[in-house]
C-alpha cells in the first residue's frame, strides 16, 4: 500500500497534469538486490531539454529505458502529460495500466540508442518508414516522402537503398536519428548517442541534434558525456550519483560554479583541462 508521502506525491502529479511532459514520482528501480534508483522525483516540462550527467553506473540510462518502457518500474510512477505510463494508483493500490494505454503513450516517445539498433535486414528507407506505417498508420507514400526529407536533413540523401552494414557508424547513427524523428515524437530520448562513434564524426551527429533542438519544440531527455553539447542545448542539467540527483540547475551554473563536491570532482575528471569540449568514452 502506498505510503502517505507517496499518496501525496501522486495526488500532486494528478493535480499538475498537463504542467509537465515527463514526471517521475517516487520512482524505484532494482535489479535483484541492487537498487539503481530510489525515491526519484523530478519533472521535465514541455519543450524543455534536460541533460543527465554523472559517472557510469549512476542510473542515467536506466531512467531513459524506464520512460521507453524497456525496463519495468520496481516502484513509483512515471507520468506523460499527466497520464500514468506503466502504473497508476487506484483505490489506494499501485496497479499496472492497460498495455493499450502504454503503447499509445509510447508512440509519443522516440529514442536514439548508443548502438544504433537498426534492422540489418532492411534498407535505410525501410528502417525509417517501418514504425510510421505499421504503428502510426501513416500511408506508405507519405511515409516514404517524409523519410527522404529526413535523410536530406541528416545529410544522407543518397543512402535510402543501402543496408546498415554498408554504412559507417556515424552514418548509421544519423539514420537512427531520422528514424526517431519520423515518428514526430513529442519526447526524444538520447542515450549516449556518440559513445560508439569515431571522434572525427561526433561533431556531425551533435550538429544534427543541435539543429533539432533549435528548430523544434520537442522535449528532450539526454544522457551524455559530451559536456559541450550538454551546455549548448540544455535548459537544465542534473548531476546523478548512485541513483540520486546530487545537484541540478542551469548549465552555466552547473559547469562554471557547481555547489556539490561530487559534481566538482566529476566535472574535473571529465573535462580535465577545463575545456567544455573534452569528452570521455565511458557509458552508463
Automatic annotation (TrEMBL):
InterPro entries according to UniProt: AAA+_ATPase, ABC_ATPase_HisP-typ, ABC_transporter-like_ATP-bd, ABC_transporter-like_CS, Ectoine_EhuA, MetN_ABC_transporter-like, P-loop_NTPase
Localization per Swiss-Prot or TrEMBL: Cell membrane
Topology in the lipid bilayer: Peripheral membrane protein
GO CC annotations, alphabetized: plasma membrane
Main location per the UniProt record: membrane
GO molecular function term, any single one: ATP binding
Domain of life: Bacteria
Listed Pfam families: ABC_tran (PF00005)
Keyword vocabulary terms for this entry: Amino-acid transport, ATP-binding, Cell membrane, Membrane, Nucleotide-binding, Transport
Start and end residues of each ABC transporter domain: 22-267
Family under the similarity heading: Belongs to the ABC transporter superfamily.
Identification of the protein by name: Putative amino-acid ABC transporter ATP-binding protein y4tH
Organism of this sequence: Dietzia timorensis
Phylogenetic lineage: Bacteria, Bacillati, Actinomycetota, Actinomycetes, Mycobacteriales
Amino acid at each position: 500500500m502506498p505510503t502517505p508521502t507517496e499518496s501525496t506525491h501522486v495526488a500532486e502529479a494528478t493535480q499538475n497534469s498537463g504542467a509537465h511532459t515527463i514526471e517521475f514520482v517516487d520512482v524505484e528501480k532494482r535489479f535483484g538486490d541492487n537498487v539503481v534508483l530510489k525515491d526519484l522525483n523530478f519533472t521535465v516540462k514541455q519543450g524543455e531539454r534536460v541533460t543527465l550527467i554523472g559517472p557510469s553506473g549512476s542510473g542515467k540510462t536506466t531512467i531513459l529505458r524506464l520512460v521507453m518502457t524497456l525496463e519495468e518500474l520496481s516502484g513509483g510512477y512515471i507520468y506523460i502529460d499527466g497520464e500514468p505510463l506503466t502504473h497508476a494508483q487506484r483505490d489506494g493500490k499501485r496497479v499496472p495500466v492497460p498495455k493499450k494505454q502504454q503503447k499509445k503513450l509510447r508512440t509519443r516517445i522516440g529514442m536514439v540508442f548508443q548502438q544504433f539498433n537498426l534492422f540489418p535486414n532492411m534498407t535505410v528507407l525501410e528502417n525509417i518508414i517501418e514504425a510510421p506505417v505499421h504503428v502510426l498508420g501513416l500511408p506508405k507514400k507519405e511515409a516514404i516522402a517524409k523519410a527522404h526529407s529526413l535523410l536530406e536533413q541528416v545529410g544522407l540523401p543518397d543512402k535510402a537503398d543501402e543496408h546498415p552494414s554498408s554504412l559507417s557508424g556515424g552514418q548509421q547513427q544519423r539514420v537512427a536519428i531520422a528514424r526517431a524523428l519520423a515518428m514526430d515524437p513529442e519526447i526524444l530520448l538520447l542515450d549516449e548517442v556518440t559513445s560508439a562513434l569515431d571522434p572525427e564524426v561526433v561533431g556531425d551527429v551533435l550538429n544534427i541534434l543541435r539543429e533539432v533542438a533549435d528548430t523544434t519544440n520537442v522535449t528532450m531527455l539526454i544522457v551524455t558525456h559530451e559536456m559541450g553539447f550538454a551546455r549548448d542545448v540544455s535548459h537544465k542539467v542534473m548531476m546523478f550519483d548512485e541513483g540520486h540527483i546530487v545537484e541540478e540547475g542551469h548549465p552555466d551554473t552547473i559547469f562554471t560554479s557547481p555547489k556539490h563536491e561530487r559534481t566538482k570532482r566529476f566535472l574535473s575528471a571529465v573535462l580535465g583541462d577545463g575545456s567544455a569540449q573534452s569528452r570521455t568514452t565511458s557509458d552508463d
